[in-house]
Amino acid sequence: MALVRFEEDLNCITLLCLLIRYGFCFSFIIVYCYFSVLVDTDSLVLLS
C-alpha cells in the first residue's frame, strides 16, 4: 500500500517538473516575442 502511494507521489512530482519546465519554456518564448516586437517598433520609429 505504501509503495502504491509512493508511486502516485512520484507521478505527481514528474508532472510538476514537466509543468515547470514547459511553463518556463512558454514564458521564455512570450518574453522573447515581446522583446523582438519592442525592438521592431523601435527600429521602425528610428527608420521613419
Describe the 3D structure.
There is one protein chain. The protein has 48 residues and is mainly α. The chain has one domain. 96% of the residues lie in helices and 0% in strands. The chain has one helix and no strands. It has one helix at 2-47. The protein is rod-shaped and about 65 Å long. Keywords: Membrane, Transmembrane, Transmembrane helix. The chain crosses the membrane at residues 12-37.
Supply database-style keywords.
single chain; rod-shaped; mainly alpha; transmembrane; membrane; 96% helix; 48 residues; transmembrane helix
Q: What does the secondary structure layout of this molecule look like, with pairings?
A:
Blueprint: H1 2-47
Write a concise synopsis of the structure shown.
With 48 residues, the protein is mainly alpha-helical.
Quote the average pLDDT.
80
> What is the helix content?
over 70%
Sheet having the most strands: none
The count of strands amounts to 0
> What proportion strand?
under 5%
Oligomer: single chain
- What string, H for helix and E for strand, traces the elements in order? H
Radius of gyration: 21 Å
- Low-pLDDT stretches are none
Q: What separation lies between the terminal Cα atoms? A: 70 Å
Look at the helices and sheets and give the structural class: mainly alpha
Number of helices: 1
From the spread of the alpha carbons, the general shape counts as rod-shaped
Return the domain count: 1
Keywords: Membrane, Transmembrane, Transmembrane helix
Transmembrane segments: 12-37
